[in-house]
Write a structure and sequence with these properties.
Radius of gyration of chain A: 13 Å
Largest sheet of chain A: 5 strands, mixed
Number of strands of chain B: 11
CATH superfamily of chain A: Immunoglobulins
Distance between the termini of chain B: 36 Å
Order of helices and strands of chain B: EEEEEEEEEEE
Structural class of chain A: mainly beta
Helix content of chain B: under 10%
Oligomer: heterodimer
Largest sheet of chain B: 7 strands, mixed
Radius of gyration of chain B: 14 Å
Distance between the termini of chain A: 36 Å
Strand content of chain A: over 45%
Number of domains of chain A: 1
Largest interface: A-B, 24 and 30 residues
Number of helices of chain A: 0
Number of strands of chain A: 9
Shape of chain B: globular
Order of helices and strands of chain A: EEEEEEEEE
Number of helices of chain B: 0
Shape of chain A: globular
Helix content of chain A: under 10%
Strand order of the largest sheet of chain A: 1-9-8-3-4
């Protein structure tokens, strides 16, 4: 079973900030949280990865509360090209854990 | 980020033939690669874990004699769909684990996928 739960879909408008929350109540001590973006007929693309608190890169921010049972991907000022499926994955890649995908969140950006 | 390639990007074959899909890590070595398949509007389903130098580990329900995996080097894993049938038509995606380029932990990168259509 997937370790994560996300909203099935979300709509937003161009220029808005979008926050997608993922629940992972059974996250293990050594697990990291990784978010991917997938467009139709393409492989998932790495967005951001974190363990705790806040991580920011050029495309997104990742907020992880102290209990690590959830995480929030924040996309600033989205555009139409951000319409995609977003997956939150949890696992310990250092142990080559096999990663089971959840259903992901289908984000639809409207003009 | 690290780059994973797949070849071919799409293939059409006749029922009963075998098809080989290659997955390469271009700028890093990967002792572990994963193979997924994805049906339209569905999530990725893990098929098997490919380990360099040893036998692949298959998920429950995945036939190892039908989906042959060979991880012959640290940069190449292949998936061969043997005696393909129309129900094998799907989008096949590989991934590879790269170690520590982000500083903290290993990270999984995905290939662009291979669209297999069996007539």
């Amino acid at each position: 079973l997937a370790k994560t739960t996300q909203p099935i879909s979300m709509d937003s408008y161009e220029g808005q900030e979008v926050n997608i929350t993922c629940s992972h109540n059974n996250i293990a001590t050594n697990d990291y949280i990784t978010w991917y973006q997938q467009f139709p007929s393409q492989g998932p693309r790495f967005i951001i990865q974190g363990y705790k608190t806040k991580v920011t890169n050029e495309v997104a921010s990742l907020f992880i509360p102290a209990d690590r049972k959830s995480s929030t991907l924040s996309l600033p000022r989205v555009s139409l090209s951000d319409t995609a499926v977003y997956y939150c994955l949890v696992g310990d890649f250092n142990r080559d854990d096999k990663i089971i995908f959840g259903k992901g969140t289908r984000l639809h950006i409207l003009p | 980020g690290a780059v994973v390639s797949q070849h071919p990007s799409r293939v059409i074959c006749k029922s009963g033939t075998s098809v080989k899909i290659e997955c390469r890590s271009l700028d890093f070595q990967a002792t572990t690669m994963f193979w997924y398949r994805q049906f339209p509007k569905k999530s990725l389903m893990l098929m098997a874990t490919s380990n360099e130098g040893s036998k692949a580990t298959y998920e429950q329900g995945v036939e190892k004699d039908k989906f042959l995996i060979n991880h012959a080097s640290l940069t190449l894993s292949t998936l061969t769909v043997t005696s393909a049938h129309p129900e094998d038509s799907s989008f096949y995606i590989c991934s590879a684990i790269t170690s520590g380029h982000l500083g903290d932990t290993d990270t999984q990168y995905f290939g662009p996928g291979t669209r297999l259509t069996v007539l």
